[in-house]
Structure formats: structure tokens, C-alpha cells
Amino acid sequence: MFTKVKFITDEISNFSGSVPGDLEDFKGVDDLEELPEEVVTHLRLLMDVLRHYRSGPLPKTVKMLPHLPAWEGLLGLLKPLEWTVHAYPRIVKIFASKGHEPALQLGAVSILN
């Protein structure tokens, strides 16, 4: 059974290549419209959640961001400057607790600045 996170991860892998580390094409994506329609729909819903977030659990996709090979590009597409102030501490906590070193650096540089 496919979960949404598995589906999105598979779609991103299909879009960017078969090798998980070969995501240069995806990292260069600046527009959502260049992605598959299912991924665009899910990312737009996720952006809407982060724009209006106040409290409660975050979607599982947010928790998976530090583990995805193309997390830098995805984070940029989610437009962090439009999130509510309540979303930032939760996202930073996710990156700090589950992220690897580059994810921690991005969390500190992109989200906190």
C-alpha cells in the first residue's frame, strides 16, 4: 500500500532520475508547474497548510523533508517566507531532530534568516 509520502518520493525519483543521488534536474526546478501534476497538487495543499498553521500535528510530508534527496528544492518551492510564525519552530525542530548535517545547515540558514 502506497502512502502519500512514498508516492511523492517515487514521483520525484521518476522525475529526476533513477539514481537517488542524481537530483540535479529537480534542484534546478524553480516552478511548480514543471513537476508532475500529483506532486504539484500535494505541494500546493502543503503550502496552504503551512500558510495557515497555528497548532497541532504537521502533515507527514513535512516530517519527511529532511530525509528526501531533493529537500533543498522542495523547501524552496514551499515558500517559507509565506508560512505562519507558528510553523517555523515546528519545522526547525523537525530539521534539528531528524535531519542530517546539510539539512541542519539549511534549516539554520534558510528558515531562521
UniProtKB/TrEMBL annotation:
| Database matches in InterPro entries | Bystin
Q: Which GO terms describe its cellular component?
A: cytoplasm; nucleolus; preribosome, small subunit precursor
**A GO biological process this protein is involved in?**
rRNA processing
Query: Could you tell me the superkingdom of the organism this chain comes from?
Result: Eukaryota
Q: What is the similarity comment for this entry?
A: Belongs to the bystin family.
Q: Which Pfam families match?
A: Bystin
Record lineage: Eukaryota, Metazoa, Spiralia, Lophotrochozoa, Platyhelminthes
Which molecular function terms from Gene Ontology are attached? Answer: snoRNA binding
The protein, known as: Uncharacterized protein
